[in-house]
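REQUEST FORM: STRUCTURE PREDICTION
Request ID: SP-0412
Submitted by: Lab K.M.
Chain count: 1
Length (residues): 525
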Amino acid sequence: MERLAGKVILLWGWRRALAALAAGAFAALSQPPFDFFAACFVSFPVLVWLLDGAASQPGERLVRRALRPFAIGWWFGFGYFLAGLWWTGAALLVEAELFAWALPVAVVGLPALLGAFYGLAAMLARLMWSDGAGRIAALAVSFALAEWLRSFVLTGFPWNAIGQAAMPVPLLMQSVGVVGMAGVNALAVFVFSAPALAASRRGRAAGLAVAALAVALHAGYGLWRLSTAEAAPPALVNVRIVQPSVDQAEKWDASVRQRIFRALIDLSARPPAEGAPAPGLIVWPETSVPFILSEQPEALVALADLVGDGQTLMAGAVRIEGERADARYYNAIVAIDSAGEIVDAADKLWLVPFGEFMPFADLLSRIGVEKLVRSVSAFSAGSQRNLLSTQGGATALPFICYEIIFPGTAGYGDTKADFILNVTNDAWFGDTPGPYQHFRQAQIRAVEAGRPLVRAANNGISGVIDAYGRVIDAFALDAVGALDVAVPRQRLASPAGRPELAGLAVVFLLALWAALGLRAAVNAD
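STATUS: Completed
RESULT:
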């Protein structure tokens, strides 16, 4: 191991950049649909050794000292996000004649931008670097900070956080309810980096022992929590999830909108299986209604015929306020009762840049850059997240599309809602890793919140997830049909009370370890 570490440490120039790029790309295999988390046990030791080789020279300027580890981290992040997010370019091929020009921006530009966060992490870690276990504690702290910054800088895009690699199955997801994503991210990087200590002499035993203890607690707590779960919780509501798999190229085609609407109604109106109860809630995916409902009274009449007494339809739809030039459009979920009336609505709060709105619209329009996703109009963001209620009294906390990827956004066992509702349209990305990665993040939000989650996606993955992150039932990608599932009544409190504070404590302890390691290294010199 020392011989391998030595070779990596001595890499220079383009060879070092290539090694960082390859290590980052290999780490992307830890994310769905591959879930090869062992890849990180290779990638992160390589990153540690590359940073070992980024030592500053006597008299070297601060900027140059900082840029060397930043470049290593950037190449690692660029490889990680390039291999993990290449599928974002598929959205631009739906209307290739209009948007194919932007393919390099999505496939290369986004990973290049996100790579800067990991570059910052590597640069910060190198400032706290030592020659023992303290250096992997420094790397863990720095990556936890980088992932936190990714959750809100430039509107936020915390997709495929490193900590998710440590949560491929529900048994290994339970820790997120104790230390939050910040704690999981930090501990995951520490554990994944621990094999690098095999080539170290100082702090090897302590570092490997702490890593082993973290793994044991992570898996042991998950095993205990699942073993104490109620075997057959009572049903909260019987839900029918409609997955129509509408071709994205036809989504807003006026000539087929009635056919799409009729397909949704036909799937929703199918009789339940023999002996099964009728659904109390019907859920349609994001923007599934292919027109403005308030402008189509005949559509509301058809929905009144569909929705029975005691039932509620929650459908993704475009909502409009105002008229003509002053009109504002919202990506929303509307609740419709048996009278065909829209009784409530919840608007999307986090909009997708360049998809649902144009940042710096006036400036970009002058150079011909337009919104990359075709819909009725640019959307406005909602002002608050409204709870939606079924006719039976069950309350849903609604999230539209990628709103579900933000850590802690559904709370930590303290939400007033009975379940989480996530509607989305991942048809933009076809049969790529994207929909699988999106679904995994929904699972993690369910565990964080301690509530079951109902998910309706245009082409999948639709299904019901319980409060422990276990999939009760789901449709495969591109399936067409109506899925009837009993949503369990589960309201799980967080065992840590405030997991975000517990996660902060984990990061602080690792930072203290890194500081002590740095101090010891300085004194030794």
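NOTES: The longest helix spans residues 499-524.
Reviewed by: T.R.
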